[in-house]
Amino acid sequence: MEITACTAADVALLDRYMGSPGRTSFHARRFARQEAGECTCLVAWLDGRPVGHTEMRWIGCADADVRAARPGCPEIGGLAVWPEELRSRGIGTALVRAAEGLARERGLNVVGIGVAKDNPRAAALYARLGYRSLTDYLDRYSYEDADGTIRECVDPCTFLVRDLP
């Protein structure tokens, strides 16, 4: 397995193998944030195919209460491994560790990650990796459905932090 920063050419492959809901590509929107300097997108590759992704959001969590609770804390966001049968094989761990490495390269000493309250498997992974609860929050986001309808989503989450050695 290899982890690299996302390139423009990777977006179509991510859409093909790890699609996203809606009319506008999730991966294209994330890549645009990277181009704007707001994040670094990471892609996990296995046999030339993307099998995981995440982004290190340098601007931190979108939730104002989370930012107030830990100012300046970048967020590892949108972590996914696909297809499902590749989960629990170290891909998610490798993506988290790669994102932490990027933070260390920038001289940062803390990172955070949000986890949905209905995702105990991810919460257990983050706990094993040394992340501890900071605060609960509501993750709010929207996307344009295939028929053009804007879908608003609200997920109850917990923001976790880890001090980097």
Mean pLDDT, nearest integer? 94
Structural class category = alpha+beta
- In what range is the share of β-strand residues? 35-45%
Specify the CATH architecture.
Answer: 3-Layer(aba) Sandwich
Identify low-pLDDT runs.
none
CATH superfamily: Gcn5-related N-acetyltransferase (GNAT)
Q: In the residues, how many domains can be counted? A: 1
Question: How would you describe what is shown here?
Answer:
It is a single chain. With 165 residues, the protein is α+β, with helices and mostly antiparallel strands. It has a single domain, classed as Gcn5-related N-acetyltransferase (GNAT) (Aminopeptidase). It contains five helices and seven strands, in the order E-H-H-E-E-H-E-H-E-H-E-E. A seven-stranded mixed β-sheet has the order 1-2-3-4-5-7-6, with helices on both faces. Helix 1 (8-17) packs antiparallel against helix 2. The two termini are 25 Å apart.
Quick recap of the structure?
This protein has helices at residues 8-17, 26-35, 64-69, 91-105, 120-128, and strands at 2-5, 39-46, 49-57, 75-81, 110-116, 132-144, 150-163. By secondary structure, it is α+β, with helices and mostly antiparallel strands.
